[in-house]
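Long-time lurker, first post. I've been practising inverse folding by hand and with some scripts of my own, and I keep getting stuck on stretches where the structure tokens seem ambiguous. Below is the full token string for one chain I'm working on. Before anyone asks, I'm not after the true native sequence, just a reasonable design that respects the backbone. If someone could post their per-position residues I'd love to compare against what I wrote down in my notebook.
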């Protein structure tokens, strides 16, 4: 019997963010489960589109594999992981591996863009400590997010890296299952050579959608290079809100011979470099986006993505730029979600459906260029914020949003409804509207605080998708970002 220890420690760090991820943020459930230990790692993630769930599900069908589950946790993207949180969680993983006894390999479900208060490369720091404990030869296979900022340390210290190939990330569980196949090859004696390349330019997340060119072609090439179980390549496009030297797109490749690994990596890097000017970097202002949406002749809605206030990339989900634009333009049949304002959600719950509440909505986080929306709001619906996802990406998981309310702006010239939550959550699933009685398919305009993940569930109902750059803590206009730590020569 082959024993494999499994663990996960996920965080995508926005170094420009306004809130940090402490241990409590990893303990709490949000769109994914809270911190899990032991057997709960498998049972608590089963059926969810997560890498560790895909690895465990694949292992269940292999009678030769026995799992030793250690720990799994994730925190909503934010600014740096605190030193306390990293040290406690890394310590739990190391102690758990030690307590598991003899194991033949280790699988880690990591993100690849973790920055802590004391480590620019959180994943590299964890792998370094793990190697010190288990030695240089034990197979360690790691799954990473498509937005990973891969470092030489990650490549050197992990036996192999496997990276998501879709954005929206529909293949998270599939990537975990792919890691098991790689692990089995390593356990059978394979020791693939590695090649690593970093691109000379950055790609904003709003341009990383794999359902359109040039990303669809790039990832089609990556798939085509999977020649044998022992030779493959992967492409990460990077997380642009992490101001570190290793931020940006990168390629890893593996093969039995070093020359073959280098050829695989170079094939992808050549195509990636040639695609630099094909990425769509256009972002409308909120006023422009709303005007374009209001001219839509279709009965299907226009979806406006508030890309810079995406909590799934570390933003606050409370800015009001798109909301102001919708009301100012007199938009009708407009929905916007999720706007995180626990005080207003609590006021709506205390006064009840049918009440008209008055005050400042959103804009509480102090994002430059943003301000609260001062007005009167009719409370139309209330929810406890427990919402089962229905879309492909998060299906099987449950959102924990805290008390939620549907508020309609009291303005005779506009018809704008907002889903106000008490906890940040990226608006990437129709259920975040439907669970509280709203049907986005019948709206004229649907505003979502998301960058790309919403496309999986919202694009099928949309006449058009528009991206807007309202104020937010997740900057997408890269040329305007005051980076200080980028490696020399990389182009914004």
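-- Answer (accepted) --
I ran through it position by position. Result:
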């Amino acid at each position: 019997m082959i024993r494999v220890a499994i663990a996960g420690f996920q965080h995508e760090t926005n170094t420009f963010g306004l809130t940090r991820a402490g241990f409590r943020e990893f303990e709490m459930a949000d769109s994914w489960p809270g911190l899990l230990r032991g057997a709960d790692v498998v049972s608590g993630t089963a059926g969810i589109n997560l890498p560790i769930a895909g690895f465990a599900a694949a292992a269940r069908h292999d009678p030769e594999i026995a799992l030793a589950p250690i720990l799994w946790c994730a925190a909503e993207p934010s600014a740096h992981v605190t030193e306390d949180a990293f040290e406690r969680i890394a310590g739990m993983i190391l102690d758990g591996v030690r307590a598991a006894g003899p194991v033949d390999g280790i699988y880690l479900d990591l993100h690849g863009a973790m920055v802590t208060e004391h480590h620019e490369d959180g994943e590299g720091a964890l792998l370094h400590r793990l190697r010190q404990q288990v030695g240089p030869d034990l197979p360690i296979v790691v799954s990473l997010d498509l937005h990973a900022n891969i470092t030489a340390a990650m490549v050197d210290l992990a036996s192999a890296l496997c990276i998501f190939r879709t954005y929206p990330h529909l293949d998270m569980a599939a990537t975990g299952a792919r890691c098991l196949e790689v692990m089995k090859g390593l356990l059978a004696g394979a020791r693939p050579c590695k090649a690593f390349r970093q691109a000379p330019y950055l790609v904003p997340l709003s341009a990383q959608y794999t359902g359109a060119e040039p990303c669809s072609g790039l990832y089609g090439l990556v798939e085509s290079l999977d020649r044998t179980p022992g030779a493959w390549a992967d492409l990460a496009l990077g997380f642009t809100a992490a101001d570190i030297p290793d931020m940006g797109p990168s390629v890893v490749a593996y093969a039995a011979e070093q020359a073959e690994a280098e050829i695989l990596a170079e094939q992808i890097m050549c195509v990636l470099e040639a695609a630099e000017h094909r990425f769509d970097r256009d972002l409308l202002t909120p006023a422009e986006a709303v005007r374009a949406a209001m001219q839509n002749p279709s009965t299907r809605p226009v979806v406006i993505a508030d890309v810079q206030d995406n909590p799934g990339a570390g933003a606050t989900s409370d800015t009001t730029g798109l909301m102001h634009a919708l009301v100012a333009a007199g938009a009708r049949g407009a929905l916007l979600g999720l706007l995180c304002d626990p005080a207003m959600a609590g006021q709506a719950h205390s006064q009840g459906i049918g009440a008209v509440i008055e005050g400042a909505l959103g804009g509480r986080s102090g994002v430059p260029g943003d301000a609260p929306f001062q007005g009167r709001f009719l409370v139309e619906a209330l929810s406890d914020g427990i919402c089962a996802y229905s879309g492909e990406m998060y299906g099987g998981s449950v959102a924990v949003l805290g008390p939620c309310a549907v508020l309609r702006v009291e303005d005779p010239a506009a018809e704008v409804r907002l889903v106000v939550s008490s906890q940040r959550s990226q608006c990437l699933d129709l259920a975040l509207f439907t669970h509280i009685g709203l049907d986005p398919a019948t709206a004229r305009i649907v505003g979502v605080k998301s960058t790309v993940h919403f496309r999986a569930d919202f694009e099928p109902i949309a006449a058009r998708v528009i991206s807007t750059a309202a104020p937010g803590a997740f900057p997408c206009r890269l040329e305007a970002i005051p980076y200080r730590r980028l490696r020399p020569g990389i182009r914004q």
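A couple of notes from the structure itself: The longest strand covers residues 373-383. The chain has a mean pLDDT of 97. Happy to go over any region you disagree with.
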